[in-house]
Design a protein that fits this description.
Elements (H helix, E strand, L loop, with lengths): L1 H36 L3 H24 L2 E8 L6 E8 L5 H20 L2 H7 L8 E7 L14 E5 L2 E7 L3 E8 H10 L1
Parallel strand pairs: 2-3
Antiparallel strand pairs: 1-2, 3-4, 4-5, 5-6
Length: about 190
């Protein structure tokens, strides 16, 4: 009797172990499925921002021959930004570079703020100082720009910097975005 009882207990234990493992596997699969179906607000915003990055890249490549190179961003409170990086294969004067970087920034900002769902997720329209644009400039034959011509123009935190590169990058001019907009308005 004791042997039969032990045998039945072993069978139940082994079968329950298999059943429990199977149930655990089913629960894990259901949880993974449910968590992958729902997106957080951040994920929704990121997906929409990426669509606007792609739209802006295509638009600026078509309109201004800016070649997309990369993008970046930060969601750290107080330090938020979205950055687009381009390559441009034509030497530019400071005036031309100013016009190009401001146009790129305004286009990106307009594209972001044209999506009502993005504004709702953020709780406000995208501010100008969140937009960063960097344009690396080369000659049409892909050779590097030599000083005194500028090789990089960058809009960052409401300031535009113009760089030359000898051995290291050197800022040759800096102006606020408002100063640049005034200069463009007066030209």
């Amino acid at each position: 009797m004791k042997k039969v009882y032990n045998s039945i207990l072993k069978d139940i234990w082994i079968n329950n172990g298999i059943i429990m493992k199977f149930l655990n596997l089913i629960i894990i699969i259901i949880l993974i499925f449910l968590s992958s179906c729902s997106q957080t607000e951040y994920q929704k915003r990121e997906r929409l921002e990426n669509k606007m990055i792609g739209k802006t890249w295509r638009q600026l490549e078509k309109e201004k021959n800016l070649i997309p190179v990369g993008e970046g961003g930060s969601i750290t409170p107080g330090k938020e930004f979205l950055e687009l990086i381009f390559h441009y294969f034509q030497p530019l004067t400071i005036d031309e570079a100013r016009k190009l970087v401001v146009y790129a920034a305004e286009t990106f900002l307009d594209n972001l703020n044209s999506v009502e769902q993005l504004i709702e997720l953020l709780g406000k329209p995208y501010p100008k100082d969140w937009i960063e644009i960097r344009i690396h400039i080369s000659n049409p034959d892909y050779s590097k720009i030599q000083p005194p011509d500028i090789c990089v123009v960058e809009l960052r935190r409401h300031k535009i910097n113009y760089y030359i590169k000898d051995n290291t990058f050197e800022v040759i001019k800096e102006e606020s975005l408002d100063e640049a907009l005034d200069k463009l308005k007066n030209n």
